[in-house]
Design a protein that fits this description.
Elements lengths: L1 H8 L14 E5 L11 H5 L7 H14 L1 H6 L9 E3 L6 E6 L8 E10 L2 E9 L4 E7 L2 E5 L2 E5 L2 E7 L4 E5 L3 E5 L7 E12 L3 E8 L10 E8 L8 E6 L3 E6 L5 E6 L21 H4 L1 H8 L3 H25 L8 E5 L1 H11 L8 E5 L3 H6 L1
Parallel strand pairs: 1-2
Antiparallel strand pairs: 3-4, 4-5, 5-6, 6-9, 7-8, 8-11, 9-10, 10-12, 11-12, 12-13, 13-14, 14-15, 15-16, 16-17, 18-19
Length: about 375
């Protein structure tokens, strides 16, 4: 209860508070990047359609497919808990094997900043010619009886076949029932997908009204930026269940995505003994094992050991005048896209005026 009192009285970013071990889920936030690959066949399908409208639909469908694992699956039959905050330079790698002929995919992640915390990730499927660079952070504050989580960052999806890029922004999250019942995540607010070919998808994730209504509903519109009032396709439903898409010319509707029909693909991580000391599962192994055994005091001890070791490294670097550098990602400034983020999220500038890019990204290889 003391932690909840701290939360409700705290006025800054809640990530500055130390979360008790019994409220941790035993997984690093960096590993959450795997949710972007929950349905690798949908990611691979982005480059297949011949028309730009159909490709935008494919991107929108893939995006919605990532939400179930990210924000809902962890609450089914249990309480939503907090992941570990990755240490600076922490890494995570995995792959998805080809199961339908669309190609293998692999994921590379790095914690590129600790203050503020920013996780960068990269997924590619060379056979399909689809790849993405993304980064995200989390800024949380207590709001009413919930915790609001703002997610600075974005994902940029590219295809080699069509030489297109799609920029995806993130919605806000609300952790509901924090003080009563079992906490769960509600996705709320606007987000967008903008393509370099001019097509746009605008989503609105709807908060449940105080009286009546249902959780987890959303709507979406697809249009061309040169004619924004001409809505080509409309999407509606529940992002954690079924949604439909309607062609506004033919008035025909069909299933858009069913989050419960297809289980997420299993990702493969290298054997523990082959992982480096900086990889997520080795960094947090003692803490995770203690949490699994419900030995929360021991988990706190091991968690403090990890954090104190990081403070010692920072102190050592400062004493030597050394600057820490990212190993796998670099930052590219993009003030134009920051203005787009402000437009759709209706917020003040986040300072996120660019993107983190994997130094072996496919588009860099094609340029060399």
């Amino acid at each position: 209860m003391s932690f909840l009192k701290d939360v409700t009285s705290f006025t800054g970013d809640l990530s500055a508070l130390t979360c008790p071990s019994f409220m941790l889920n035993g997984v690093s936030l960096l590993e959450y990047s795997t949710y972007w690959g929950d349905h690798p066949q949908l990611l691979a399908a982005i480059a297949k359609p011949e028309s730009p409208e159909e490709r935008m639909i494919a991107v929108a469908r893939w995006f919605i497919s990532t939400l179930y694992g990210s924000y809902f699956a962890g609450c089914v039959g249990s309480t939503s808990k907090k992941p570990f905050n990755p240490i600076l330079g922490e890494q995570f790698f995995c792959r998805w094997d080809d199961v339908d002929g669309s190609g293998d995919a692999h994921l590379v992640c790095e914690q590129v900043s600790h203050h503020p915390p920013i996780s960068a990730f990269y997924i590619e499927n060379p056979k399909a010619g689809v790849y993405l660079n993304g980064h995200f952070g989390q800024k949380s504050k207590f709001k009413g009886t919930s915790i609001q989580v703002i997610q600075p960052g974005r994902v940029t999806v590219r295809t080699t076949k069509n030489d297109e890029s799609y920029v995806v922004t993130f919605p806000d999250l609300y952790i509901r029932s924090l003080l009563v019942g079992n906490p769960f995540i509600e996705v709320a607010g606007p987000t967008s997908i903008e393509c370099s070919n001019g097509y746009v998808t605008e989503f609105e994730f709807l908060s449940k009204p105080w009286f009546g209504g249902k959780y987890h509903k959303f709507t979406g519109n697809i249009f061309h930026k040169d004619d924004p009032k001409n809505i080509l396709y409309s999407i509606a439903g529940k992002w954690m269940a079924e949604s439909t898409i309607t062609n506004n010319v033919t008035k025909e509707s069909e299933l858009f995505f069913d989050a419960t029909a297809t289980p997420p693909a299993k990702y493969i991580v290298a054997p523990f003994q082959e992982q480096s000391e900086i990889e997520s599962r080795r960094v947090w192994v003692k803490v995770a094992q203690a949490i699994q055994k419900q030995e929360y005091s021991l988990a706190t001890t091991h968690k403090n050991e990890v954090e104190n070791a990081q403070r010692a490294l920072v102190k050592e670097r400062n004493s030597k005048g050394e600057e820490w550098k990212q190993r796998m990602f670099y930052f590219v400034k993009d003030p134009v896209q920051e203005n787009v983020n402000v437009k759709y999220k209706n917020k003040s500038k986040t300072g996120d005026v660019g993107a983190w890019v994997y130094n072996k990204s496919l588009h860099l290889q094609n340029e060399s």
